Amino acid sequence: MKLTKEDLINAQISRADEAFKMAELAIEAKLWNSAASELYYNCFYLIQALFLATDINVKTHNGAKTLFSQHFIKKRLVDDQYGKLFAKLFNYRQDGDYGNYMLTSGIDSSICIRSKKI
After folding, report:
1. What is the pLDDT of residues 45-92, one digit of tens each?
2. What's the CATH number where 112 sits?
3. Separation CA 112–CA 55 (nearest Å)
4. Which of 16, 118, 5, 13 is nearest to 68 (CA)?
5. Number of structural domains in the chain
6. What is the pTM of this model?
7. Cβ partners under 8 Å of residue 50, min gap 6
């Protein structure tokens, strides 16, 4: 069975919803690196859905950040605050996953609210 574009978009949105729910659980447990990672993936999956809807192909996470900015933020199709949010979460995820950096304090609740709105 071949999936339609709409099926693929809906799958990304479902993945985003799941990541947001996981972020909420991680925040409740004060697991800050996990929360930052899940919030990043919430945004990433929604951006992937946007790319699918507009026929933009991306192969890497860094490419997603760059193309989101190029095609949506700079053209003012999406508010700049969401570009900044995605960049911040990208850096948190990179530091938490690949660096020796550990988030030791809570994630600003406004990040969660903005992440949910993206």
Report:
1. 999 999 999 999 999 999 999 999 999 999 999 999 999 999 989 988
2. 1.20.120.330
3. 28
4. 118
5. 1
6. 0.84
7. 56, 68, 72
